[in-house]
Design a protein that fits this description.
With about 210 residues, the chain is an alpha+beta fold. It contains 4 helices and 9 strands.
């Protein structure tokens, strides 16, 4: 798995670049792990329902990912794994989309436990990662020719715009929280990327043939 860091990038442009990377993986490149953030935008996944927008005044983009409406902004770390589910992985059955989602959650849960002493967990539905009754990460993916794109929005720091005027993932804005709010201390983004990348390398390792 190779790492790319795109910095802050427009959501639509990031989607286009993901599809370019997806094609390279289809042509034989390694799985890719992309880190980035987006300017403030609400994205509407395929399961978005009427009423999920409740007065949001900013940019809105329809997305090919699963899930409902959610916010992206500078206070998040966005993670786009481009993973070929048609190739053997040590901890993932071939073409197992549900298993892939559970493994994404596990990367976050294990990272938060090992490095931040936070007890995080997933729920049977919908996907995402929670600390107690607060949701800290939203997950929405798409799969094309058995290769994944889109991925994870991990809330790092408080953002006054975040989740106001929408029902994020179908919940109230108050359901969402950031890691810095829960930890009561600032996060070092670069260190967190390294920690997450290490868990990705271990949990998404190719199977030995």
């Amino acid at each position: 798995m190779e790492i790319q860091d795109w910095g802050e990038i427009d959501y639509d442009r990031a989607t286009g670049r993901q599809l370019e990377v997806l094609q390279k993986v289809l042509d034989g490149a390694e799985d890719q792990l992309i880190f980035c953030s987006h300017p403030p935008v609400v994205t509407l996944g395929r399961a978005t329902e009427e009423g999920d927008l409740q007065g949001w005044q900013g940019s809105v983009v329809k997305s090919s990912r699963g899930g409902k409406a959610t916010y992206h902004g500078p206070g998040q770390l966005v993670i786009y794994p481009i993973v070929h589910l048609g190739r053997p992985h040590r901890h993932l059955a071939l073409r197992d989309v549900q298993g892939y989602l559970r493994l994404l959650e596990k990367v976050l849960i294990q990272t938060l436990a090992m490095h931040y002493d936070l007890k995080a967990e997933s729920q049977p539905h919908p996907t995402g990662v929670w600390v107690g009754e607060k949701k800290v990460a939203s997950i929405g993916v798409a799969v094309k020719r058995w290769i994944t794109y889109h991925g994870v929005a991990l809330n790092l720091g408080p953002d006054p715009l975040a989740f106001q005027g929408i029902k994020p993932c179908g919940f109230t804005p108050e359901t969402m929280a950031s890691l810095e709010e829960l930890l009561a201390l600032p996060l070092k983004r670069e260190r967190l990327k390294e920690q997450l990348a290490q868990r990705f390398f271990e949990l998404f390792a190719p199977a030995e043939i």
